[in-house]
C-alpha cells in the first residue's frame, strides 16, 4: 500500500505512478475512515509534499498511528527544490528502509508565482523519469537515501518549519472575491475541513494546512490570500498530464 497526501496533485500523481510501476495500490489518507490492516503487507510507502522543509501535520499524525510491521518501507517527498531533514524526521515517526525527494512544479502561490508552462512540463518529465528509476529500486527492495536536503537543512527543518507551523498557517487572509459563484468546491475538497459556506460564500477557519488546494483549484480564480495572489497564476497538475495519467 502506498499512502499519500496531496494538495494540488503533485504527490497524488507521484503516488499513483509508483503504484502503477510497482503493482501496488495508492491510497489517499484523507479518504480513510479507519487504520488499514498491514499485517500481510510486503511493502508500505508514504508520499507527501514538503511544507516549509517539514512533513504535513496530517501525514505525520497518520504515520504515528500506524502499527510497526516487518514490511519494506519507503518515503517519497515532493518539493520545489530541497527537502531539508523532513524525511529523516518522518523516519522517526515511522522507520523507512528507503527515502527519496522528487522535484515538482511550484504550487505555493502565497509565496511566489507558479512556474511557467514550459518549466512545469520539464519538471514533470524529469520526475516521470526519476520515478521509473525509483520504482525499480523499490521492487528490488534496495535501501536507498536519495534526498536533496539542501543548504542549512537542520535550520530549515527546525526553526523555519517551527515558525511556519506556529505563525504561517493562518487561514485568515483567505477570501473569495466578487467572481465567486458559491459552487462549494473549496469547502468540499478542503482536507483540513477549514472552509464552510455562509450565505453562498466560503469562510475560512483560523488555521489550515496551507496545502493551496482551494486557491489553486477554484474554477473562477476567485480565491485570494491577501493582495499578492491576485496577479499570480494558478496551478494543478491535471492540466499538464496526458489522459492516461489523470
Feature tags:
246 residues, alpha/beta, Rossmann fold, Alpha-Beta Plaits, 2 domains, 6-stranded parallel β-sheet, two-stranded antiparallel sheet, 32% helix
Structure overview:
With 246 residues, the protein is an alpha/beta fold. It has 2 domains: 2-164, Rossmann fold (3-Layer(aba) Sandwich); 169-234, 2-Layer Sandwich (Alpha-Beta Plaits). The chain has 7 helices and 10 strands. The protein has helices at 10-22, 57-65, 86-93, 117-139, 153-168, 185-189, 213-217, and strands at residues 2-4, 26-28, 43-49, 72-79, 98-103, 145-146, 174-176, 195-198, 201-204, 223-225. A 6-stranded parallel beta sheet has the order 2-1-3-4-5-6, with helices on both faces. Helix 1 (10-22) packs parallel to helix 4. The longest helix is centred in the middle third of the chain and has 23 residues, at 117-139. The mean pLDDT is 96.
What topology emerges from the helices and strands here?
Layout: E1 2-4, H1 10-22, E2 26-28, E3 43-49, H2 57-65, E4 72-79, H3 86-93, E5 98-103, H4 117-139, E6 145-146, H5 153-168, E7 174-176, H6 185-189, E8 195-198, E9 201-204, H7 213-217, E10 223-225
Parallel strand pairs: 1-2, 1-3, 3-4, 4-5, 5-6
Antiparallel strand pairs: 7-10, 8-9
